[in-house]
Design goal:
The complex is a heterodimer of chains A (about 160) and B (about 425). By secondary structure, chain A is α+β, with helices and mostly antiparallel strands. Chain A has one domain: Sufe protein. Chain: A. Helix content of chain A is about 45%, strand content about 20%. Chain A is built from five helices and three strands. In chain A, strands 1-2-3 form a three-stranded antiparallel β-sheet, with helices on one face. The termini of chain A are far apart. The model of chain A has no long low-confidence stretch (mean pLDDT about 90). By secondary structure, chain B is α/β, with parallel strands linked by helices. Chain B folds into two domains: about 140 residues, Aspartate Aminotransferase, domain 1 (Alpha-Beta Complex); about 260 residues, Type I PLP-dependent aspartate aminotransferase-like (Major domain) (Aspartate Aminotransferase, domain 2). Chain B has 15 helices and 17 strands. In chain B, α7 links the parallel β7 and β8. Chain B is globular and about 70 Å long. The chains are: A alpha+beta (about 160), B alpha/beta (about 425).
């Protein structure tokens, strides 16, 4: 169990980066930035996340989200937020693909040292990939960010 | 006569296996799906290896034997619920049965082909009554029917203890009410519905009653004709039988009047290029090749249950319910549903303060304990209690008091593990 719920995951789940109180997202001021939003639901457990990503040009300037969910989903969205702020949409999309690869590794993790380095703290979620029912928990925030980026890109065009 | 639980457990080979690195399996998810005794699998094997053939067609011996076995299975399942064989329609499961009735109403509403079917024709101003405690399968079909016909969907609420609030019974069930669909036992709160009151009210106004018997059929003695409901549905896989098979019960009058929903082979009398006439019930509702082997298995499960005896079963499961209710002695645990052991079945849903149900389930799973986490296909009742999801432990005749103690011990470790107190 401690392999799945690593200390880093427990800590992020208790004080997640980017999570705001319910209702705060509506009042979020874009300060003239291009923003993308996304609402994702996991219908089997009722977990949900609403995420707002703000862009300065192609760079993600800020991410805030509100949601409810298990320790895995909250911690994963938190680690993702830490990773994504300051990166370009292209870089985040690349991270997202790598994280998906990690989640589908059935506990084996990634072998490419460069990929491991790129994922940084998100490697702590390797244990999740041993539990097929929990992978979607770890991916909920990433899916919200992917959709938010897509929406912002459509608006920007 | 007390049940020999050790002997019962021996009939379920899966209970011997270990999970998650050698831990003995403690299976507390029978409300989702029950395990199967050897008798069920052996009946299916015997049929497959010795009698399999196409039923209700052909003249060869295997066809005859298969047809006999299939119809005998229908009679066996009918006996389990006090019904006659021609009041039993095979379905793929309770969800299909409930949808069949709702779609029968829809077909009748589109333009009744017979005077009898007009009792199922809905129009704006009519009302459909359900409860807040329904599984999605006995809620969403009625939502769809309401949308399609303009009828209004109304519902009984539940009180803080999780029991149906029938204080507005005579207001909710009134002369506009055409359908009353409700569960016998909530798959979240475990509360048993006082069916008699609801059926009496529905009868006074001539409304059709539909009972979801999924969570009761394997735990309580059922006499559907005595209960007086018009329709009832249940699934094989929640009563020690296989998946992919279930039953829709309907009174002769109700089945004779309900328009068919699925069309094709095996349900017709004569067919021309422009029209067809239909067989009488139950075959009118059984278009296409049926799940014959699974039906044989479901009948074997019905026999197995009958042999146990429902008096013995209820007494034993009541004991398990009391053991399950002790989870509330653990700090931080709140039960959703009644706290008393009476008028309930042996399942308990709860939340753990500060720990998400998924995480609770994961820690229990690591101890070899299988429970359900999530919404159990019943979002509205979770909303009613202000929670997004819950943990559910459900026990049946193959579980022991020692297993439930082990479950409570593992549960007591959950909040310390996550550092919540």
């Amino acid at each position: 169990m401690t392999q799945l719920y690593q200390q880093l995951i427990l800590e992020h789940s208790k004080t997640p980066t980017g999570r705001v109180a319910k209702g705060e997202l509506e009042g979020a001021n874009s300060h003239g930035l291009n923003i993308g939003t996304s609402h994702q639901v996991n219908p089997t457990c009722g977990d949900e996340i609403t995420l707002v990503a703000k862009f300065e040009g192609d760079k993600i300037a800020d991410i805030i989200w509100e949601g409810q969910g298990c320790a895995i989903s909250q911690a994963s969205a938190s680690v993702m937020t830490d990773m994504a702020i300051g990166q370009t949409a292209t870089q985040v999309t690349d991270d997202n693909l790598l994280f998906h690869e990690l989640m589908h590794s059935r506990g084996a993790g990634l072998t490419d040292p460069q990929a491991i380095e790129q994922l940084g703290d998100a490697v702590a979620f390797t244990g999740v990939s041993q539990y097929p029912a929990r992978i979607k928990c770890a991916l909920l925030g990433w899916e919200a960010l992917r959709a938010a980026i897509h929406q912002a890109q459509l608006k920007g065009e | 006569m007390a049940l020999d639980i050790t002997a019962i457990r021996e009939q379920f080979p899966i209970l011997d296996r270990t999970v998650r690195g050698g831990k003995p399996l403690i299976y507390l998810d029978s409300a989702a799906t029950t395990q199967r005794p050897r008798a069920v699998v052996e009946a299916m094997e015997q049929f497959t290896f010795s009698h399999n053939g196409a039923v209700h067609r052909g003249t060869h011996q295997l066809g005859e034997e298969a047809t006999d076995a299939f119809e005998a299975a229908r009679a066996t399942v009918a006996r389990l619920v006090g019904a006659a064989p021609d009041e039993i329609v095979w379905t793929s499961g309770a969800t299909a049965g409930l949808n069949l009735v709702a779609n029968g109403f829809k077909n009748a509403s589109l333009g009744p082909k017979s005077a009898a079917a007009s009792r199922f024709a809905l129009k704006p101003g009519d009302e459909i009554v359900v409860t807040e405690a329904e599984h999605h399968s006995n809620l969403v079909p009625w939502q769809e029917l309401a949308k399609a016909t303009g009828a209004e969907l109304r519902w009984f609420g539940v009180d803080d203890e999780g029991r149906l609030d029938l204080s507005n019974l005579n207001e909710l069930i009134n002369e506009r009410t055409k359908v009353v669909a409700f569960t016998h036992v909530s798959n979240v709160t475990a509360a048993i519905t006082p069916i008699e009151q609801i059926v009496a009210a529905a009868r006074r106004v001539g409304a059709t009653t539909i009972l979801d018997a999924c969570q009761s059929v394997a735990h309580l003695p059922l006499d559907l004709p005595a209960l007086g409901v018009d329709f009832a549905a249940f699934s094989g896989h929640k009563m020690f039988g296989p998946t992919g098979v279930g039953v829709l019960y309907g009174t002769r009058e109700a089945l004779a009047a309900l328009p068919p929903v699925n069309f094709g082979g095996s349900m017709v009398e004569t067919v021309t290029m422009t029209d067809a006439t239909y067989l009488p019930p139950p075959m009118r509702f059984e278009a296409g090749t049926q799940m014959v082997t699974a039906a044989i298995g479901m009948a074997a499960a019905a026999n197995w249950l009958n042999n146990l005896g429902f008096d013995n079963l209820s007494e034993y499961e009541n004991n398990l319910a009391e053991e399950l209710l002790k989870v509330e002695e653990i700090p931080g645990i709140t039960i959703i549903g009644p706290r008393e052991a009476h008028d309930r079945v042996a399942l308990v849903s709860f939340v753990v303060d500060g720990v998400h149900p998924h995480d609770v389930g994961q820690v229990l799973d690591d101890a070899g304990i299988a429970v359900r986490v999530g919404q159990h296909c019943a979002q509205p009742i979770h909303n009613r209690f202000g929670v997004s999801s819950s943990v559910r432990a459900s026990a049946t005749v193959y579980n022991t008091v020692a297993e439930i103690s082990a479950f409570r011990e593992a549960l007591a470790q959950v909040r310390p593990f996550f550092g919540v107190d």
